[in-house]
Amino acid sequence: MGNRKHAVIIGNGIAGVTAARHIRKNSDMEITIISSETKHFFSRTALMYIYMGHMKYEHTKPYEDSFWKKNRIELLQEYVTDIDTDQKKVALQSGDALRYDSLIIATGSKPNKFGWPGQDLPQVQGLYSKQDLDKLEKNAPNNAVCKRAVIVGGGLIGIEMAEMLLSRNIPITFLIREDSFWDGVLPQGDSELITRHIFKHHVDIRLATNLKEIHADASGNVKSITLAETGEEIQCDVVGLTAGVSPNIDFLKDTSIETKHGVLVNRQLETNIPDVYAIGDCAEQHEGIGNRRPIEAVWYTGRMMGEAVAQTICGHRREYNPGHWFNSAKFLDIEYQTYGWVFAAPRDGETHFHWRHADDDKCITISYDKSTRLFIGINTFGIRLRHETMDRWLTEQRDVDYVLQHLKEANFDPEFYRHYEKEILNSFTSQTNQITNA
Amino acid sequence: MSLASPDTYSLSNKQKLALSLGTIGLLILVLAFANFGLSANIWVLALALGLISTGVVLYARAAYLDKIPGIKNDGVWYKSISSRGILGWLTGVVLTSFYIVLYFYPNLLGLGVDGAANTGLIALFDPLSQLLSGRDASQWFVYGTLYTVAILAFGYKFMLKYKHNKYQQLRTGSVMFFQLGFAFLIPEFMYRLNSDLPYYDLKSMWPLNYYIFDEWSVKAFLSSGNIGLGLIIFGIVSVFVISPILTYKYGKRWYCSWVCGCGGLAETAGDAFRQLSDKSTGAWKLERWLIHTVLVFSVLMTTAVIYTYLGYDSNNFWLTKDLFIKLVIGFLTLVFAVIMIFKHKELGKDAKYGAIGYFVLLVALLVMHFTGTTEEVFYIKASSLRAAYGLYIGSIFSGVIGTGFYPILGNRAWCRFGCPMAAVLGFQQRMFSKFRITTNGGQCISCGNCSTYCEMGIDVRAYAQKGENIVRSSCVGCGICAAVCPRGVLKLENGALEGRINSNDILLGNDTELRDLINKQK
C-alpha cells in the first residue's frame, strides 16, 4: 500500500461514489469502495426502468467499467460485518480485514417494515436494491404469475412500483394510509391532482386504508391480504412494502460509532469517532439544517454530502452546507419539481396560491409570506422550471408578485410547448386582487 | 413481436389485425417482385400501398390513441424487434438484401434494360410514375415511393407516440412535408415541366448530394436555361450561405431533424431502433475518425470530378482548372485559419486532428493539380474516384449499412459515422452556433434514459450529471433525450454564445461558496 493514505468507502451509491470521485480529484489517496450489492455503481433511481424494459442494467451505470481503474478507485464486492475503530480496520464477511485512514459510511437505506404478520413471506418486498429488482422480476414477471399486486404505502417508491407493475398490465391495489396521495408532503391541491391521475391509470387506490395482515397459502406463498379498517380480504400474489425507508446501519451496532436512527454526524459529516464519516441516506444530522430533515434520503443530498466530505478528507475541512432546497419526481406521467419550501399546510404567516389547468394534468402551488409577500417556494406539476432561475430568485428574496410576473423566464419546457404564465398570473390576480402592474 | 418476453407485451387483437393488413400489402409487392402475373394496374399498387399504410396507422392507433399521454417505452428491451432479437436480425437481413438488390441488381426488381419494358415490381409502379412525370418507373422511383410511404405512415405513428410533445410533432410534420413535397413530388413535376432537368431534390445539399457537381448533372442544369442555372446557383448558395446561417441560429437540427430525408426515415421508421446506438467512448472515437475521413474523401472526390471537366483556357470559360484549384485551396485555408485563430481553445486536442485533416487535403489537392489531366487525377480516372465514392459511400454506407442495419446498429448509423453533410453541419454546430442542450442545474439523477435513447450514441448523462450543457457536433437535436428525461433536466435551446459550454465540479444546489471555490480552482 505504500505510504499513501487509504480512504475506505462503504457503499457504492451516489453518495459514496461522489465522495470517491472528489477525493481522487483532490488527492493521491488510495481509494476503496466496498459494496455487496453490485460490483459497479448504478443509478438506483433507474431500477424501475429496467423492469419496465426502458433500459437494461448496463444502461443504468453512469460510468463505463473502465472508469474505475483509470481513476484508481478500487472496487470490492464484499459485505462489511464490523468496524474496529481503534485499529482502524473494517472486517469483511470473507474474513479479511481492510485498514483505513479515513472511513466513509454511505450504506443508504432499507425499506421500513412495521411488524405486519406475514411481512417476511417470499413475495413480500420493498424496492430499493438491485436484489429487490431481481426479486420482483421473479415474483411478478407477468400478469399470469402475478394476477394482482398490493402496494402498501403511498410515497415516491410506492408510486414507482405501481408504474412498474402497470407496465406489465398487472392489476394493482394501492393502500395509502393518508386521505390523499403523499399529502403529508404535498399541499392538498397537488396531492389530489396526483391521486386523480393514479385513478386514471386504473389503479385500485384505497385511501385512508391500512394493512392488517398478509396471508400465505399452504406452500408458504402470499395469497391475500386483509385491510385493517374493513377486514376485507384482497387476493394477491405480490405485496410491495413501500412505507418509507430507514438507514441501513445494523452492521454498526457493535461499534462505538454513535447512532440514532442513522449515523449521527456533525455539520462536517464527522461521526463521534475521528476519521469516520457518514454521508447520504444513512447519515443523521444532530439537528436538521434549516427546514431540512435530520435524515435526507434524496439523490441530490447524497451527492452533495459526497462533494462536501471529500473536501474535509482532503484537508479542506468544510461544513455540509446545502443551498436552497430543491427536488423532483415523476408520478406516472406527471413530472414534479419543487424549489424552496412548500409545506403540505402553510406554516404561520404563510399562504399558498394554487393554480390548476383545466385538463387536470398540470398545476402549481406557490408558498409566500402573507405580510411581506416574500416568495418561499414553488411546486410545479407538468411544467418544468429552470433550477438556476428559481435558485437565484430565492437568493435574491424576490416577492411572489415578481416571481409570477417573471415566471416565463424560469420556464424550462421544450420549445413550442404552450405557455401558461399569463393564465397563472390572471388566476393569481383574481384570487388575491392585490397585484398591480407596478 | 410475438417473440416478446415477458409475454405481457403480446399484441392486442387490433394490432394483430393491423399487422395482417400490412403484411398482405407487402405480400402484394412480393408477388409483383416474383412476376406472379399481377397486372400493372394503378389500383393494385394503390391497394398494396394502402394496406401497408393502413396497417401501420391502425397499429399505431391501437398502441397509443387511447393511452394517457406520456413516454411509451415499456418493454422496448424485451421486444425481439427492438432489442436485437431474432426479429431484429431477420428484419436487418431482409432490409439489407433489399438494398443490395436495389443498388446492384435492379434487373431483379424488373427494371427493363436497353429500352425494354419494365416487369415485376418496377412495372407495378409504372402507372404511378406515368401519372406523376409521364415516364415509366425506375428502381429509384420504386424506392422513392416506398421511402415516402414509410416516412408518412411511421411519421403518423411517431406523432401519436409523442402526442404530448409539440416539438416532436412539429419536426415530424416537417420531415413528412419535405419528403413528400421536395424529395418525391416536386422533382417528378419538374421533370414534367422540363425533361432535361436532372432529378433534383432542392433540400438535398452537397456533400450529401454528392452527384450535383458531376459533369452530366452540371451540363444538364446549364443546358436547361435559366431554371437550371438558378437551381445550380441555389445548390451552391445553400451549401455556403443558407446552411451556415441556419446552423448558426438553430444548430444542425434544422437540417438533420427537420428537413433531411435520411434523418426523416431514421426518425420515423427507424424510431424503434434508436436505443441500439453504441454509447461507448470507443464508438465515439470511431465516429470522429470515420465521418471526417468520409468528408475529406468527398471534398477530394468532388474537387477532382469538377477539375477534370474544367478547361485550361480562361477564354473559353472563366473558371479554369487552375483558378478552381486555387479557389478550393484558398477556401479551405480561410476556414482553417479562422478556426485556429478564433476557436483554438474550444477544439482542444481535436485541433491536432483538424490540422492533420487540413494538410492531408491540401497536399492531396496539390498532388492532384500537378499530376492531373483532363482524364486523370492521382494517375487514376476521376470517374473511377467518383464511382468508388458512389459505390462505397453513396450506396453501401448510406443505404445498405445505414438503413439495412437499423435493427442492429440503430437508426442513425449513417448520420453518425458516414454522412459528410452531418460532418460539415456538426463542425459548424460545435464551433459557431447558438444551439445547445441546457442541463437543469442539479436535477439530474443519472438514470440514463437520455443516453439510452440518444440515437447518435451521445452519452448525454455524462454531461447532465456534471451540470454541463451538451454541445456535441454529432447532436441532431431530435429532442428525445429531453422528452424521456423523468426529471425535466434537458432543454434544447438557442441562446447566447457565451457560457454555452460550461462544466461544474460541484453542481447547483450545494454550498454556493464551495461551488464557486471548486469551480474556480479548475
Describe this structure in words.
The complex is a heterodimer of chains A (438) and B (522). Helix content of chain A is 23%, strand content 25%. Chain A has 3 domains: 6-110 and 246-313, FAD/NAD(P)-binding domain, CATH 3.50.50; 124-243, FAD/NAD(P)-binding domain (3-Layer(bba) Sandwich), CATH 3.50.50.60; 326-432, FAD/NAD-linked reductase, C-terminal dimerisation domain (Enolase-like, domain 1), CATH 3.30.390.30. Chain A has helices at residues 14-26, 47-51, 66-70, 130-139, 156-166, 188-200, 299-313, 387-395, 400-405, 421-432; strands spanning 6-10, 30-34, 73-76, 80-84, 89-92, 97-99, 102-105, 109-111, 124-125, 149-152, 172-175, 204-206, 211-216, 222-227, 233-235, 238-241, 245-247, 263-265, 276-278, 283-285, 326-331, 334-340, 350-356, 363-369, 375-381. Chain A is globular, with a radius of gyration of 23 Å. The longest helix of chain A has 15 residues, at 299-313. By secondary structure, chain A is of the alpha/beta class. Chain A is built from 10 helices and 25 strands. The model of chain A has no long low-confidence stretch (mean pLDDT 95). In chain A, the strands form 7 sheets. In chain A, strands 3-2-1-7-19 form a 5-stranded parallel sheet. Chain B is mostly helical and 522 residues long. Chain B has 3 domains: 1-66 and 105-190, no CATH class; 281-417, no CATH class; 432-521, 2-Layer Sandwich (Alpha-Beta Plaits), CATH 3.30.70.20. Chain B is 61% helix and 3% strand. Chain B is built from 23 helices and 4 strands. Chain B has helices spanning 13-33, 42-65, 86-104, 120-124, 126-133, 139-161, 166-193, 215-222, 225-250, 253-256, 261-268, 281-309, 321-342, 344-347, 350-371, 382-401, 406-409, 413-417, 420-431, 449-452, 460-464, 480-484, 512-521, and strands spanning 376-377, 380-381, 435-439, 490-494. Chain B has a two-stranded antiparallel ribbon with strand order 1-2. In chain B, a hairpin with a 2-residue loop joins strand 1 and strand 2. In chain B, helix 12 (281-309) packs across helix 19. The longest helix of chain B has 29 residues, at 281-309. The radius of gyration of chain B is 24 Å and the shape is flat. The N and C termini of chain B lie far apart (51 Å). In chain B, 47% of the residues are buried. The chains are: A alpha/beta (438), B mainly alpha (522). At the A-B interface, helix 1, helix 7, strand 21 and helix 8 of A face helix 7, helix 20, helix 22, strand 4 and helix 23 of B.
